[in-house]
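Hi V.,

You were right to ask for the full record rather than a summary. Here it is.
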Amino acid sequence: MIRFEHVYKTYPGGSEALHDVNLHIKKGEFVFVLGHSGAGKSTFLKLILHEEAATSGRILVNGFDLSNIKKRRIPYLRRSMGVVFQDFRLIPTMTVYENVAFAMRVTNVKESEIRRRVPYVLKLVGLLGKENTYPTLLSGGEQQRVAMARALAHSPQLIIADEPTGNIDPEMSVAMMELLNKINSVGTTVVVVTHEHELAHQLGKRIITINHGSVVSDDLPSCDEEEPASDPEQAPAQPADEEVMA
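Predicted structure:
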């Protein structure tokens, strides 16, 4: 699902953001990537999204080899994942429904599918009844859930959450983790990038810690299971459980 092989990232001026990073996040895992501000988490995300290119090393994401990916293939890479950004990135002039629908329209999804899918994902994140509400009238937790619905809209095999609890209160943080757990339970890979050590350790999931651009620890849960062998170059299949993710 995600594989880094001897990945280095050095920015102009000589600042090294990542140093010899090696890791493998398997299909269906729930993984926390921990690190303080400046540890290299943001660069890690940018490389996965191919907003930045590695200086050296190999990166595989959802069957795409980012070392030699063609420009025309990058939109397909990004459509294979859903990203929940810390600042939500909602469009204030659009309603909740329109924000989620817009994410589908830009990938040329048919309107009939949008009309079916948007109410479903809004129900999944507990926002039915808020379809016609504008983001400025929502609480921080509700805005976070809109961002989650938007990330889920096209049934991605991988969800990446960037500091998903950074702008919400502790009670909503627990609810957000429960929602991510529910999404993971049907086979969707979940990667949560955060600096909140206590929250990560409470969940009992795999924790990868980055410090000064290097992976300094990789703690697996005791119940960790091996992923079935697959061709890393193949495009991801759709989730098996259509009742939750379809």
